Amino acid sequence: MHATLITPDDIQGLLPETADLHVSLFDQWTGLRGVRPFPGLSSIQPETLKPWLGRINLLDVQRDPLDFCYRLYGSKLTQDSQYDLTGKLLSDLTDEQREIVQESYQTVVNDRKPLLTMVIPKEPWRDIAAYSRLILPFGDEPDMCERLLVLILRLSPDEMERHRERMPLWYRFE
């Protein structure tokens, strides 16, 4: 999947209503990683994630074969979707659910770089909310992503309509 290169400053133009939440989490992640490609696992501390709690998923990366286990599925996401994926494997989800996230998660694991995506239902009558996803890699080994932290924020109707014609929407950070 092709991704457009962006900087955190570009998020304001892409997602004006939620830019502050995206940029502040990205900035925190950048500060935690220092000179490493991504922060270590011990840097994921609930007390530092308060502004985003409820809208965060933590996924453990499993290998051989590659899969993802939901260590935490945000409480607000559970409330919105009416299901809790905590403890579930991505491979256990329906094909439709897996299709929405699998490629982006694999890309972050392989590239070891953050990714911002937008998911907008192609059929407006579908009961699926449009949302943005900031996917951040973590791991103790500099060459191996071991966990993903995913911030999921619902898009406003204006944001959804503005981006609907530009699918797919993947943005990598420079």
CATH superfamily, called what?
PAS domain
Overall shape: it is globular
Q: Overall mean pLDDT score? A: 87
User: Main sheet: which strands, in order across?
Assistant: 1-7-4-5-6-2-3
H and E string: EHHEEHHEEEHE
Task: Return residue spans where pLDDT drops below 50 for at least 5 consecutive residues.
Answer: none
The third-level CATH topology is Beta-Lactamase
Total number of helices:
5
CATH architecture: 2-Layer Sandwich
Radius of gyration: 15 Å
Give the biggest sheet: 7 strands, mixed
Strand content: 15-25%
Alpha carbon gap, first and last residue: 17 Å
Structural class: alpha+beta
Pfam families: PAS_5
Organism: Aestuariispira insulae
Protein name: PAS domain-containing protein
InterPro entries: DUF1457 (IPR009922)
Give the tags.
174 residues, alpha+beta, Beta-Lactamase, 7-stranded mixed beta sheet, 5 helices, 7 strands, 29% helix, 25% strand, globular
Structural features, described:
There is one protein chain. With 174 residues, the protein is of the alpha+beta class. The chain has a single domain, classed as PAS domain (Beta-Lactamase). It contains 5 helices and 7 strands, in the order βααββααβββαβ. A 7-stranded mixed sheet has the order 1-7-4-5-6-2-3, sandwiched between helices. The longest helix has 17 residues, at 95-111. It is globular. 30% of the residues are buried. The model has no long low-confidence stretch (mean pLDDT 87). InterPro entries: DUF1457. This is PAS domain-containing protein. Pfam families: PAS_5.
